[in-house]
Amino acid sequence: MVDDGGDTAGDGRQGWPSSRYRGRASDDDLAVKLQTDRIQCETGQGPCLDAVYDQRTVRLPDLTEEERWPAFTERAAELGVRSMLSFQLYVQNDNLGGLNLYSCRKNAFGDESEHVGLLFATHAEVAMSGAQQEEHLARAVAMRDLIGQAKGILMECHRITAEQAFALLVRASQQTNTKLDDIARYLVDTGELSGRRGR
């Protein structure tokens, strides 16, 4: 949680956070953040959900006077949260993400906080998108390798071409209403083509 981030440090350098700023979250801070997020999920309301589903950014200056999310604000106030700033990170297909900033001070986040937060959220979106693409690519490569192994098994056992082996996998997938990669995995693991059992 941010206590204060705009003061001048004791050594006189401008813009350096004061001693009241904690750059790393303590275990208690992390627990409060996780509980606050959980409360939004449980109540189905809160600034993060509005940011993710309806708006790009939602600022909650004083949680104790907020009326938009009564079930959320009552429980979050008990945890010591006094203000929040929430950003939509990405909306791609059904994947939703949000970035939340919390403070135990009222009115802790102003226009500058929102501007910096939007910049950070934009960078986070790019990083998350890249990670998702990398994950999808890794899955596709793994699936291609698995299907290649399954084709190789069929080619060796039945003395058929790669195209014929792939056609057998597709047919087994269609006949059993099973994903192609599951058919291939079963064949690689057991040596049996599940769609051909009992024939």
TrEMBL record:
<dbReference type="Pfam" id="PF03861">
    <property type="entry name" value="ANTAR"/>
</dbReference>
<dbReference type="InterPro" id="IPR029016">
    <property type="entry name" value="GAF-like_dom_sf"/>
</dbReference>
<dbReference type="InterPro" id="IPR005561">
    <property type="entry name" value="ANTAR"/>
</dbReference>
<protein>
    <recommendedName>
        <fullName>ANTAR domain-containing protein</fullName>
    </recommendedName>
</protein>
<dbReference type="GO" id="GO:0003723">
    <property type="term" value="F:RNA binding"/>
</dbReference>
<feature type="domain" description="ANTAR">
    <location>
        <begin position="127"/>
        <end position="188"/>
    </location>
</feature>
<dbReference type="InterPro" id="IPR003018">
    <property type="entry name" value="GAF"/>
</dbReference>
<feature type="region of interest" description="Disordered">
    <location>
        <begin position="1"/>
        <end position="24"/>
    </location>
</feature>
<keyword id="KW-0804">Transcription</keyword>
<keyword id="KW-0808">Transferase</keyword>
<dbReference type="InterPro" id="IPR012074">
    <property type="entry name" value="GAF_ANTAR"/>
</dbReference>
<keyword id="KW-0805">Transcription regulation</keyword>
<dbReference type="InterPro" id="IPR036388">
    <property type="entry name" value="WH-like_DNA-bd_sf"/>
</dbReference>
<dbReference type="GO" id="GO:0016301">
    <property type="term" value="F:kinase activity"/>
</dbReference>
<keyword id="KW-0418">Kinase</keyword>
<dbReference type="Pfam" id="PF13185">
    <property type="entry name" value="GAF_2"/>
</dbReference>
<dbReference type="InterPro" id="IPR011006">
    <property type="entry name" value="CheY-like_superfamily"/>
</dbReference>
